[in-house]
Amino acid sequence: MSFSSLPIIDLKDDESTIVKLMLNACSTTGFFYLRNHGLLDAQQRMFTLAKEFFRLPLNVKEEHLITKDNHGYVRRGQENLTTSTAKLIDEKEAFNIAKYFQSDQLPTIFAQPDNYQFILQFQQDCYALCMALLTYLAQSFQVDSDYFTSRHKWEEKSADTLRLLHYPAVQNYSDASIRAGEHSDYGSITLLFQHLNQSGLEVLDRSTNTWYPVEPYNDMLVVNFGDAFEYWSKGFIKSTVHRVAMPILDTAKENERFSIAYFCHPNDSTLLTPVPSKLILNRTFEKDAHAKLALDHENEETLTAGEHFQRRINKTYTY
Ligand SMILES: O=C(O)CCC(=O)C(=O)O
Ligand SMILES: [Fe+2]
Fold first, then answer.
1. What are the residue boundaries of the Fe2OG dioxygenase domain, all occurrences included (predicted)?
2. Which atom of ligand 1 is nearest to the CA of 263?
């Protein structure tokens, strides 16, 4: 398992293989490719809808600006992800769809009945896929198979977000430009759908401080673990730092980028206390520089997933 060739997990493999590979992936790279996930057609339709939306004039997109509940349109410069001291502006725009969205909180093209139904279904399918992965992961950790899913109940509040992202085409940029600043995700797992031929995503090997590309493939999505798992596993699972770099400029090539992320989060009230797994029983959490920056807080009290999420977004958003 290495950052230069990320693990591939095939959902058509047998259970024991998946369980073994998950354990390996989560404790080494924190990122893996997922094959046979069942969302290929839906992913295409979601990209088509996202493109239609982002082509609209800014004033139309701004009709549903992001609100404190993390739902709505994020215009350029509103969310800057870098956790390092250099404050870079993310050259991107996004539309976040919160867990219990209503059609009147959506732009007209998303609110049309068939598109609305489709988005609801896509959100449900992403959630269901995350629950399947969390069930395998519980087996990898040798805890009750519903240990993680019982902390991700659909009917309980959480920060789950379906997010459409657009990185506009660029003709030139400076050293200080970035598409998405380096960060780790805040929740439990993230599904990332990359558009074919639109590179830029990179992962950081924290032990050597080296960045590696995560190329898009048409038949695989990308899965990564977030901060909740780094807490839950006392650092055994890596909430891997990633970013989206600026494209290599080539006048013959289009360089805009679209991506779609489903951020799965534990229910807001879930405590980020270690999993009762013998794999981590005797482990002490030795935080590296990123973990200190992202996970440490003023007092020793255990955070809930909801508190951690709020603390993280308070640092990256300007409303
Ligand atoms: O657009 C991408 O590929 C990654 C986006 C991302 O990492 C994020 O929004 O958390
Ligand atoms: Fe991310």
1. 158-266
2. 10
pTM of the model: 0.96
pLDDT digits (tens, 9 = 90+) for 32-66: 999 999 999 999 999 999 999 999 999 999 999 99
Per-residue pLDDT reduced to its tens digit, 284-301: 998 888 888 888 877 668
Domain count, the chain: 1
Residue 94 alpha carbon, nearest atom of ligand 1: 9
- Domain range enclosing 84: 8-314
In a domain, 107, yes or no: yes
CB under 5 Å of ion ligand 2: residues: 185
* Strand ranges, E, within the chain: 8-10, 31-35, 72-74, 93-98, 161-167, 180-183, 189-194, 201-205, 210-213, 220-225, 242-244, 257-264
Per the domain annotation, does 3 fall within a domain? no
Residue 319 belongs to a domain: no
Q: What is the CATH number of the domain that holds 309?
A: 2.60.120.330
Q: What is the ipTM of this complex?
A: 0.99
Q: Whose CA is nearest to atom 1 of ligand 1?
A: 259
Amino acid present at 271:
L
